[in-house]
């Protein structure tokens, strides 16, 4: 006992002896189609599509297809280990629930359900600045689980200081700073509907629960949600950010800092030279620059350049256990999940997220084992060929 892969046997036993089958598909690549059956068109149109015509999102998936696993035989994988530690945070597997905003679009429990599922599975949850529940509420929901906070660095420094102070006070230890969304990308599916949840007071709970933000409003957000949305739209864009502002952030955050959205090897080197602890190689799931390079295609060169000095994490396009294996083999210490867990949330709240995570970890465990790896730390690019 003790392997995540045992989940497979329990599903078969439930089917053959108990007569029950999983209520959500175990084929994680088809979660999107299942979620599309339960979500209303506007939230679905916000969550699933990417920037422009979607070419970056397609490239993310195609990049995973090009790398193929080359299984090794007779290497004893009876005892296996998925558990790991990333920047001092212990986790049951090298998988993190990435920062995803406005989670009540998927389910009324939103981030609370995802944070609880993460803690139940022993994985970290990254609380987005763009959330529907406050920093403090999600900290509480995380219980004794890891607390990582994702910052959208607002153009108002006093507001930024307030977010950081609140996150520290609520027990968050790691700061993920998202750099690729200083301005929202061009998203035709939302534009065609004229749909932006923030202007309806959704996804801005971090702001409307903040004393600095509220002091700037004429009326409380509950009384005038439109004005709150407009005030958010005034402080969110921050296109003037530069590398020289990182020391300012460092002074206000004592723990590890991870820069999310790195795609160029020179930016990875700049991150290292500016003394942060980690990066997320990510193109935001293709939601920002349409036509951008697939995130997986830049991972090997970045890992090669800075992997010895920095913690290199990865996201964008991870849909299955084999995808996790491929990203780890190409140099990531762990991956972040985006849409897949949100689809689980849409399909079943907290248990739906747990289902997705359990299936992903089981598939990862079995794929590693059948490919001849008892420990994911033994993976290297040699585990793969590029076709
Ligand atoms: C609906 C949605 C909302 C997101 N919100 C945020 C956010 O608030 N902060 C952030 O850093 N990234 C956000 N992301 C990007 C994810 O953290 C992650 O980079 C991306 O989803 C990974 O790609 P994948 O969905 O293909 O796995 C969001 C993604 C989606 C799909
Ligand atoms: O939807 C997103 O991907 C996202 O991260 C975001 C964040 C703030 C405003 C708009 C979108």
Automatic annotation (TrEMBL):
InterPro entries, per database record: Aldolase_TIM, Alpha-hydoxy_acid_DH_FMN, FMN-dep_DH, FMN_HAD, FMN_hydac_DH_AS, LMO_FMN
Protein keywords: Flavoprotein, FMN, Monooxygenase, Oxidoreductase
Name of a matching Pfam family: FMN_dh
Cofactor(s) recorded in Swiss-Prot or TrEMBL: FMN
Keyword Flavoprotein annotated: yes
MF annotations from Gene Ontology: FMN binding; lactate 2-monooxygenase activity; oxidoreductase activity, acting on CH-OH group of donors
Keyword Oxidoreductase found: yes
Chain residues that bind glyoxylate: 46, 152, 187, 260, 284, 287
EC number in record: 1.13.12.4
Leading EC class: oxidoreductase
Superkingdom field: Bacteria
Active-site annotation: 284 (proton acceptor)
Positions of the FMN hydroxy acid dehydrogenase domain: 20-387
Binding residue positions for FMN: 99-101, 128, 150, 178, 282, 315-319, 338-339
Family: Belongs to the FMN-dependent alpha-hydroxy acid dehydrogenase family.
Protein name according to UniProt: Lactate 2-monooxygenase
Organism: Nocardioides dokdonensis FR1436
